[in-house]
Protein 1
Amino acid sequence: MISKVSDWLNERTGFREQARLKRGQAVPAHMYFYCFGGISLFIILLQALTGIYMLFFYTPHPELALKSIEAMSNDDSLGGLFRNMHRWGATLLLATIITHVVTVVYQKAYRKPRELNWTSGVFQFLVVVLLLATGILLPWDWRAYWAFALWVDYVDTWPFIGDFLKNFILDVFTINRAFIIHVMVLPIALALLLRFHFKMVKRHGISEPL
């Protein structure tokens, strides 16, 4: 039965040929240093799945945000697990991406012809940082409030544009807007950057260590 279903899917999608091509791609030796990009992608997928689950419970309102999260964690059988997976997964994702960046810099894998690999990777890192920042704000508890206050004060120290950005952020910030940015704008941007990044990796291959 499974064989028949597999044949039916392969006839229409060609997944066996695609899998064969993937297995045939060359991968350099010393593979441990090349795992962090794939680990980061796996964590991103977990973040997306747990985030979609939490969408069914979260209320983007200053007075209801924390209550909705607490209700999900306490009343739903999987709520606490998915929330903690999402929360600690974000920290782990940042660690794996930093390790991936350090590995690329150490091996000088950003040089010609992989400049666009590096550039798209840097933008992905910035998007992940913004995802972390907006995610911290969504519960709108004391931690989120003071994190927001510290970030705004830090932006104010930037030369030339700091004061303008501070006033702009204070004028436009709402929990609902932070929520939309976190669940729509930034994930779409990350997905587009990931697609481009993998196209470049497929085109140029994985860089050998020096």
Protein 2
Amino acid sequence: MQAATLTQNANISVIRDAIANGMDSASWTAWIAPLNFEIEGSVLVLTAQNQFSADYISGVYGALLKNVAAEFGLNVKLVVRGVAAATIANDNNVQSYAPATDDVVASVAFDAFIPSDENAFALTAAKRVASAAVSFSPLFIYGPAGCGKSLLAGCIKSESENVILMSGAGFVSEFARALKNRNVFAFKDFCRNCNTFILDDVQSLAGKNATMDEFLQLVLDLRAAGKNVVLTSTVAPNALTGFDRRAQSLLASGLVVDMVAPNANVKREMLVRAGVKSDIADAIAKRVAGNGHLIAGVANKIKTYSELMGRDATLDVVEHLLADTLEKSKTPVSMVKMMCEKLGVSYDAICGAGRSKSLVLARQIIMVVLKNSTRLSLAEIGNYVGNRDHATVMYALRQIEKMQSSDLMLSAQINQFIAECK
């Protein structure tokens, strides 16, 4: 009898090692190690501490457990018995959790967000989420740094009830802390006990598999419960690196909206609201890069000068203060090089003879932007992209016009380039 028990324990140890080798260490520690392992006849019985744990393990790791058990000629059964034999206590009834830090995004009213035609859709969607009158979840807002994504997240938080807002890095940190403190189930309950869950900078989860699995399950659970999920990112769901197709498709399954950097009118209003005189704001708005963070820094520099020096900053003083920030007058070549950088192609390639699909598209986009943001003739535009002839430019304009009618992302990108080049 004792020999049989020793043999069974040895088999369980080997099975546990086989399962552990099939997953990352954080997932093993969080989910599988706390289970009680038993072999009853030809069945590997795994006992979870509660139903939530059992459901999650079955959904995420069920295939792995089944495959490993089959290697030992066993079937697998996941059960809930209230109290597990494992020494790690993870019972929801005895756990407590509180965030280690406050939200990094401030709560602000929607009036703080300066609307523009380009970002009207995103603003309207955010207001609808705040009013709890939506049929889509998650709301995925993406755009470049400084376009106002975090500001919109703060607006939703301010005008909604029972909201949890975390940064992507904060979610990673809090999940890791919960694993370390062995109160991961209380952390899960905390995240689900809300009407709206907002994660700012979801791209921060890239490459963190255990945290990714937990977050995706959180999104599924909240959506199933009829609750709102709002996500922000610097790129669209299908462009997220370090996210598999399953994750990308889930994040794109609600409503995906894009945002663009502030245009000249928005930049001017931002400067005026920050205390910059209107005549100075008029003069420099078009010469400050379209990045909300940079605009805030410009306004702060002007105000600080006035406070420290005891006099208002004149336009000459401002231009001297911001000599390293204000853009010089734009030239067609500088516009082309700027777009090359943002499109991820080299200036030499644009002007060269390459005909790859991505390069041709980039070249055509640049032609369209030059046409709509300058007074250059078609022949002159062709000269700035490698001495292309008039007919080539005409063909590019027609092709992009067709694509824009069905590709909203391409249209938004071109409009953004036009705004930056004017």
Protein 3
Amino acid sequence: MTTYRRMTQIAFILLVFLMPVLNIFRYDTATKELIIFGQIWGLGLKQAFYADHSLRGAGHVALQFLLKAVLPWIAVLAVFPILGALTGRFFCGWFCPEGTLFELADYLTLKLTGRRSLFAKRPNDPDAPGGKKLIHVLVALLSLLVLPLLGGIALTGYLVAPKTIWSQIMNWNFTFGVKAGIIGVALYMLITSILVRHSLCKYICAAGLMQMLFGWASPVSLRVRMDPARADECTNCRGCEKACFMNVLPRMNKRDISCVNCGECIVACNRELGAGRGLFRYQAGEKPSPAAMEKQESGVPGKSCAAPAGPLHT
């Protein structure tokens, strides 16, 4: 599952990089035109319509504005609430480029310092095997230099024609707009990946917050659930907690708005109990698990709590 998740994250990053290059979506500040799939997206109004002050002319302008400006913008804004209501924060865990960058920063920090955060060690920090520290230092330095610059170039391409940006890079002669765009995005990526990371996902990101709220309220939203009927099979290895970079306690089995449905707790539990025998699974809504339904049908009461007692919460 982790491999598949990495593939979707990389594929989405490539899509973000290629959209302005292929004219799939970008706004050209030079011509002041919005380009979608190679076509200029306008209101479809000729100058004569603005000069027509009749009721028919005003109605045509209003209709075109509704169809070409208001409704498309509403559709764009509705994407993340709909995703949240159906899939929770699945996008955050499987596609989000910023989340991918933060996970890379977590990984390198863990390899270099023995903990995910730069500031303090947390109880759920995973074990960090020693060795190859020099390689990780070089990878971290290369990431700090290359990734923010590539991100700055890619995202500036949404406002300035990519061929213009690359021409300026090749000639090392930048306009103010291109220079400001690349430097601004690069600094943002550096600051968030080094200092902020997943706190941005929890408290700042508008797309994440919309998914969070609608996913929490939706009765059919996708969630990662632990099977309470099999709670006694838990070995208390805490692998699920250590795998969670959002600091969720998966065994509490509650609707945690920070969960991004990455499935790393599923992978960790399968690693501990054996492939296909883990206690966690993806589930839409709150329906009982097959094991719980089986116990109910046989008259065996299920567990009243989702995790074993003892040292779990120490």
Protein 4
Amino acid sequence: MIKGETKKVSVIVPVYNTEKELERCIHSICNQSYENLEILLIDDGSTDASAVLCDRASQEDKRIRVIHKENGGVSSARNEGMKQAQGEYVVFVDSDDWIETRMIEKMVFSAVRHQVPLVICDYKRAMEDERKKAEQERRLSAKEVLNYYLLEDETIRIPHSVWGKLFTRQIIGTKRFPLIKRTEELLFSTEIFCEAEQCVYLPEAFYHYCDDRKDSLMHHTDAEHTIEKEIPLLAEQIRIIEQNGYKEEAELAYFCFGKRLLYFYLAFRDKMLKKEALLVKRYTVKNRKRILQSLKGDFVKKTDRYRMLLYVWFPAIYYRFVLLHDRRKR
């Protein structure tokens, strides 16, 4: 028996209309080298053959439980999975993705050996080229995790997505996902990062993330969602980091927030969405003082500092600068 295999792992898979990829996903979970699994397939009102495939899989592997529910979105499905989960650890896998055979074994082994509530592994996007990455397992403090996450470090990649991670049920506690279309994992993961004093990062790309589906939410932009949901969530994320006493990381978060506002402003101006661009400008003005303060940090490159200064004070002039300078170069 693998060390630590007395501990049950609940694998939560939200399923909605992924009949083409679903069997590959289920197969990769059922064939894990770590066998003490509870596999929860949450059928979120699928209208294709996904529901049938889930039921068929449960007949072939007694570790699988299928929960059929009305469509409520991926957050609703994950929340239902957490409600049903009985394992000491929880792993999330999206139904159009798949995982390497030893992923859960390696994660549980690390969690038990280091006595940490969170283990994160690297991942590989569909069609992604080889890149430089961490060479060995790393034990990280909460401050390090927040820094790698906020800076979007490509050597030690820590996305806010919940896939590619192993959580103890204790650290999840009563946390749940907000019922929104996108960015639903942002606050959930940020709270976990702040509360997990230590975690382990595994450099192996055990998780295979498929971001090439044309109907994937990653391929859609929604101005209303950005203004009403995403920007307020980013502001709330900073509040959570500050509330947990991470002052330096909050400064970094403000810098990242300013960069996101800059990106949204340019995107809306490009699409001639004047009303939305104006609303982003108002958010920028409202947070101007803290964004400017964040530019003093050592983590800010000189070119980023100059660009942010121009954008924060003169958004319209910055947009013209981008049109004349950056895009003319291309």
